[in-house]
Fold this protein.
Amino acid sequence: MTRHLALVVDDEPDIRELLELTLGRMEIDTFAAENLTQARALLAEHPFDLCLTDMRLPDGSGMDLVEYIQNNHSSLPVAVITAHGSMEMAISALKAGAFDFVSKPVDLHVLRTLVTAALKLSEQSTQSGGYTGVRERRSRHILLGDSAPMQAIRATIVKLARSQAPVYISGESGTGKELIAHLIHDKGPRADGLFVPVNCGAIPEQLMESEFFGHKKGSFTGAGGGKDGLFQAAHGGTLFLDEVADLPLHMQVKLLRAIQEKAVRPVGAQKETPIDVRILCATHKNLAALVKEGAFREDLYYRLNVIELHAPSLRERREDIPLLAEHILNRLVPPGTAIPALSKDAHQALSGYSFPGNVRELENILERAITLCEGNVIQDDDLHLPRTHAPEIPAPTAAATPAAAVPLPLAPYLDTIEKDTIMKALEQTRHNKTAAAKLLGITFRALRYRLKKLGVE
């Protein structure tokens, strides 16, 4: 079996020797370079499976090498070695396309974990003949849609899967942010590990630290036995933090340390435990705005938002609605049962609707329509989409002037729109007010106020 080949780039002989010895014990052959010029020459001569480079080099920087490899050897994973505490430099390298980073003094356990993951990625690239559109097309049956935004997002997922960089997935509720995160995990070197999703807003604040980092036996009242946390469960895989904006500030501090140090300290433990986890996160809220308001830590925001991926709303890809509707109907109808068809009017109604709840709302609408339709054809009326029409404006008379314009009943009209939207959200969540408030992007208190104001029981 052919041994893997790595390129080590560092101007310090001691560091080069340490890296070469460590890789040699992993049965990896190495070539070493002490500057950019030597590294480029070696890259032209040998088919490397991995590159490790220091950030400070005599004739340039590790960032220059990262960019050179991205442009000329895009399938080669490159990891950077940074000075301790230089997170800004590490983040810049990840943004430029580095696979991962390791800090000085080099922790050999962390290094071996990084190298193993990088070699898996290199093997995947070789087996698939490089990262081409083939893998993007294979995910089409999972992330449906032929619109330009969906083609772009599938191609981006393939690129992001090649990195260990944290990814922040933004987008409205119901756009499939968790599905996107799962695809990033499935297409990368961590696919053999677990994908662990967690809704940050669903964990009681007093239990949050224990849930994330685990606890030792007797560390607090009721802790009869020790327990691993979510980070430990995701070791070797991916931790997906959904609704990360709901994390309280004290947990944001602890999460930041866990990500930066690649280690966690269980509640009641005296020392930290190394952890190998890739972090993906998402929220329907505007994280940048929350940072400005002081509700979300700026340092954690920049650590999570190394790369942002926007999940498009249905309004941004209306041409995908017919395909999505067909797929959903096929999935909802039991095997052996005739699948209802959408009438022309129903198609037009769906294509013209704004879908505040996106794909999740489309599923709910079609599930209800299957029950209500007759003759196995879904009509416009079976969809029960909210209908809001502006009041008719009287035609101006010859005597009318701007000063004598007919007043319009704007307030009742706006109240009708607001009431219809709220009722729609309540229907989707089976009248769970907490879930409805979340779907609408408002607080529970704000929803309760609006219900009282509109006279809705």
Notes: Residues 82 and 103 are 5 Å apart (CA to CA). Residues 129-140, 388-407 have pLDDT under 50 and may be disordered. Residues 108-127 form the longest helix (20 residues). The two ends are 72 Å apart (CA to CA).
